[in-house]
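Service request form, structural biology core

Requester: graduate student, group of Dr. S.
Request type: structure prediction, single chain
Budget code: on file
Notes: please return the result as structure tokens.

Sequence provided:
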Amino acid sequence: MLELRFFEFSSKLVPSFTILNAIFIIYTYLFLDGEEINILEFLKNNLFYLAPVLILVFAISYNIVVINEKGITWRSYIFPFLKKSFKWEKIKFHAKVLEVYNLKGFKKTKKVFWIIDVKDRLLFRLIDNYQHNTNKIFDITTNFSKKQGITLTVKNPIEVRNGFSKVKYPDK
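Core staff response, request fulfilled:
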């Protein structure tokens, strides 16, 4: 049974970490009965309060991705009971995508690999970099899913990446 495994760091929990930090700061302010405090100095002196939260967020954010003939599974490296999986029947397309960002006059492009579900929502996004060869992953998913992959060029895909809108396909 052929299986492709790789590690991925999911940055979706970083905003959660920011919220936890804000709650921590509010709690410490209330704990000190409203005294004038320098927050940076307090965090430097009491780093042991913040360290477990930081370690927990990064531990949950580090994932193992498994692509095999059953489907795709994401599993937390530290906590394997935290997992999410999708079977090939629930996947509509897998695509090589060229994401084009126009930021203040600068044009930036990224080659990525997308997996799109039957509701045209983005399930999985993998950036082509030194660790992941998206062409190899694209070929393997084509063999497993028995579906032809597509190639897309998407401009400013921030809403699609965050799940706020559906994937728009070009007119044929």
